[in-house]
Write a structure and sequence with these properties.
Blueprint lengths: L4 E8 L2 E5 L3 E5 L4 E5 L4 E4 L3 E7 L3 E10 L3 E3 L9 E16 L2 E6 L3 E4 L9 E19 L5
Antiparallel strand pairs: 1-4, 1-6, 2-3, 2-5, 7-12, 8-12, 9-10, 9-11, 9-12
Length: about 150
């Protein structure tokens, strides 16, 4: 995948990635590896994963969260207005409240937060099926990005 930067997080199973002439890594659940799509990469293992792929001009990060009750989730703030925030529900279900709207999110669903998060703003989550394991995705799109 020339020109694509990647962040791969294992959800289930164990994965060995060998990036020829760069590095090798053995990933357990919720561990991640960041690498270039230009690299020759070999993998071993049977896994379920979450893969963030970014074109030139984009930077991103993945964070994992575990909730067992109502809690607030703090993701990176977006001072430039050029970021995208998403939440992927790995296991469980939760109610998501933001900006006066409420949505129920189930396992396998992805929520895209379209409004920019202000500095210090939190997203309110209420776990419905416990525990709830989430992946928070923050993608920063630079002025040169598409």
């Amino acid at each position: 995948l020339p020109g694509i930067s990647r962040v791969l997080m294992v959800l289930d199973g164990v994965l060995v990635l060998d990036h020829s002439e760069h590095h090798s890594v053995r990933l357990q659940p919720f561990e991640q590896d960041r690498f270039s799509g230009d690299w020759t990469t070999y993998s071993r293992g049977k896994v379920r994963d979450f893969n963030l792929m970014m074109a030139a001009g984009c930077q991103g990060k993945l964070e994992t969260f575990l909730f067992e009750e109502r809690q607030d989730l703090m993701l990176a703030n977006n001072p430039s207005g050029n970021a995208v925030t998403a939440i992927y529900c790995v296991t469980g279900a939760f109610r998501f409240k933001h900006d006066g709207r409420q949505v129920t999110v189930n396992e396998g669903d992805l929520v895209l937060v379209e409004e920019n998060l202000a500095a210090g703003e939190t997203l309110q989550l209420n776990a419905l099926q416990q525990p709830v394991r989430l992946i928070g995705v923050t993608l920063q799109i630079n002025a040169t990005g598409r």
